[in-house]
Amino acid sequence: MSIRVLIADDQPIVRTGLTMLLDAQPGIEVVGAAADGREAVRLALQLRPDVGLFDIRMPLMDGIEATRRLAGPDVTDPLPIVVITTFDLDEYVHGALKAGARGFLLKDAGPALLTQAIHAAADGNALIAPSVTVRLLAAFAHAETPPPRQPIEPLTAREEEVLVSVARGRTNNEIAGELYITPSTVKAHLASLMRKLGARNRVEVAMWAHETGRI
């Protein structure tokens, strides 16, 4: 079955371009397009897509608030949302990730990375544009936020290694190669990290690593 995607962007040419690009990919179908965050929330509740692809800066309701309403901590059945932005260092991206977004890309990411992000979100994973992962998260690591939560159990030495690699934007296969372990072992360590940190996805794991000074 195809992954059903809802696009939200205030620029008609961007909506059209993203729709054409994604519809051309096997296994992906664009089921709706919104011009602002308020419409995105309405369409998401009406159409029940598998993944949302939201711009940050939109009228009436921005992408952060739309993400919070559809994927926030209090949402029972959160919609996997990938945030897209024009800028590789945007003050709103950190807020979007905190609001529940499963990752973000630049609008010039290209079909391959965009498709990969859609599939990752649909599978319960997250993807952040590798070129901006470290710089973006580090820029907001010491913002005025509450102290980072402590793990419910101490992290093992191997989990610490996986944690740092995730925060550096490495994929599971890259981490496996660097640490000489199998991808399935990486997934097991990542699952344990999420459990211990109370994180919903690898984005929150990466953010915790930066917030606690591990990067």
What is the gist of this entry?
With 215 residues, the protein is α/β, with parallel strands linked by helices.
Low-confidence stretches: none
As a percent range, the share of helical residues equals 40-55%
Proportion of beta-strand residues: 5-15%
The largest β sheet comes out as: 6 strands, parallel
Radius of gyration: 17 Å
Structural class: alpha/beta
- SSE pattern, N- to C-terminal: EHEHEHEHEHEHHHHH
Strand arrangement across the biggest beta sheet? 2-1-3-4-5-6
Keywords: DNA-binding, Phosphoprotein, Transcription, Transcription regulation
Organism: Actinocorallia libanotica
Domain HTH luxR-type: 148-213
Modified residues (4-aspartylphosphate): 55
Kindly describe this structure:
With 215 residues, this protein is an alpha/beta fold. The protein is built from ten helices and six strands. It has helices spanning 12-23, 37-47, 63-71, 93-99, 111-122, 133-140, 157-167, 172-179, 183-197, 202-211, and strands at residues 3-8, 28-34, 51-55, 81-85, 103-106, 127-128. The protein has a six-stranded parallel β-sheet with strand order 2-1-3-4-5-6, sandwiched between helices. Strand 4 (81-85), helix 4 and strand 5 (103-106) form a beta-alpha-beta unit. Helix 3 (63-71) runs parallel beside helix 4, helix 7 crosses helix 9 (183-197) and helix 7 packs across helix 10 (202-211). Residues 148-213 form the HTH luxR-type domain. Residues 4-122 form the Response regulatory domain. Keywords: DNA-binding, Phosphoprotein, Transcription, Transcription regulation. This is Response regulator transcription factor. The modification 4-aspartylphosphate is found at residue 55.
